């Protein structure tokens, strides 16, 4: 696509945008009497305008029905979580029985590791990417310790090559091949939170399976951002949060995927709870856990209705479009952001240019660009913040910007360029 660094061009692209109506369905923080340039949906998505009404409905039903709201609320609480399987299966490329909404991301990761990290003598190692999100690192460390292993021996990290920021898939596969008899599990962040790199999850899954390892993904920065096909890729399990690209509020309820091939496995270990028990006999309160024949079997507790109400408000917006349409706009919008940054670079000295460390190829990134401003530290980020840009700072020197296709506009990207140029003066 040919881009132009002008307000007229940006506004015309927004007029032509078939998804432009969705912007009106979200609240934008204000700065100087206008919408901020909000480019941090990769950290916390914007609030759907319907979220308050959805929560108020549940509060009213609680007031009116008390415990009977489980059966008589407008959206009865007993089966409340069941309504998410269909929309989320579309977002992550799964079958509805393979998806469940529950808990938070790291809790779900631990519950899934109970099932899918089953180390044996000689085959006990976990392969992950270097600079994985800290919670993933901590979860893996604690899991291998729980099984009696030393993390320095049991965890294999794939690092970028010298002078590079992103990890090459061939290096992941090479490490799988090298340790093929020792690796029990491959666990990768589908989109790296720091660089914004999208990994080839299909290829990694095939490589892991070919050597006898199970393969899972943390999709915190992928769900609602990129097109996924978890079922068809034969991924064993995955988990994600809902407060980033899924716009379901701070600390919002999270999700999990378990491939169909594992759902009926009698030998699969899991930490059981009453909401994962066969719902036909759940309230008999008898001994002996009978798992539900779906991903719901991994539930340990009943649904957090108020958090799920916001999640429903957000997913109802996603149901008005699809990930293919969002991905198409994402390529154009993120490409425009890249173009604007390179235009600004033309006026900067060689030792002070902005370096984008996110892959250039659209299939290897979502809507996030991670930028290093050489010769400048956090002061540039703070200047942007003072001017009405909400982006994200990551130590030691990266500014992350994510033009989210569901609610960001081409004019947002143009305005960011103007404010960034002013901040660099």
Report on the architecture of this protein.
Helices cover 36% and strands 13% of the residues. The chain has 425 residues and is of the alpha/beta class. The protein has 2 domains: 7-47 and 323-424, Aspartate Aminotransferase, domain 1, CATH 3.90.1150; 56-318, Aspartate Aminotransferase, domain 2 (3-Layer(aba) Sandwich), CATH 3.40.640. The strands form 4 sheets. The chain has a 7-stranded mixed β-sheet, with helices on both faces. β1 and β2 (34-35) form a beta hairpin.
> Could you give a short account of the major beta sheet?
7 strands, mixed
Fraction of residues in β-strands:
5-15%
What form results from the Cα inertia axes? globular
Taking Cα atoms only, what radius of gyration do you get, to the nearest Å? 22 Å
Report the average pLDDT across residues. Answer: 96
CATH fold title of the largest domain: Aspartate Aminotransferase, domain 2
Quaternary organisation of the protein chains:
single chain
How many separate domains?
A: 2
Tally the helices: what do you get? 14
CATH hierarchy, class of the largest domain: Alpha Beta
Residues in helix, %: 25-40%
Uncertain residue ranges? none
Order of helical and strand elements: HEEEHHHEHEHHEHEHEEEHHHEEHEEEH
Topology:
Layout: H1 7-16, E1 30-31, E2 34-35, E3 37-38, H2 51-65, H3 69-72, H4 85-92, E4 99-101, H5 105-116, E5 125-129, H6 134-146, H7 151-154, E6 155-158, H8 169-178, E7 183-189, H9 201-210, E8 214-218, E9 237-240, E10 255-258, H10 260-263, H11 305-318, H12 323-345, E11 354-356, E12 369-373, H13 378-386, E13 389-390, E14 392-394, E15 398-401, H14 410-424
Parallel strand pairs: 3-13, 5-6, 5-7, 7-8, 8-9
Antiparallel strand pairs: 1-2, 4-10, 9-10, 11-12, 12-15, 14-15
Helix pairs in contact: 1-14, 2-11, 5-6, 8-9, 12-14
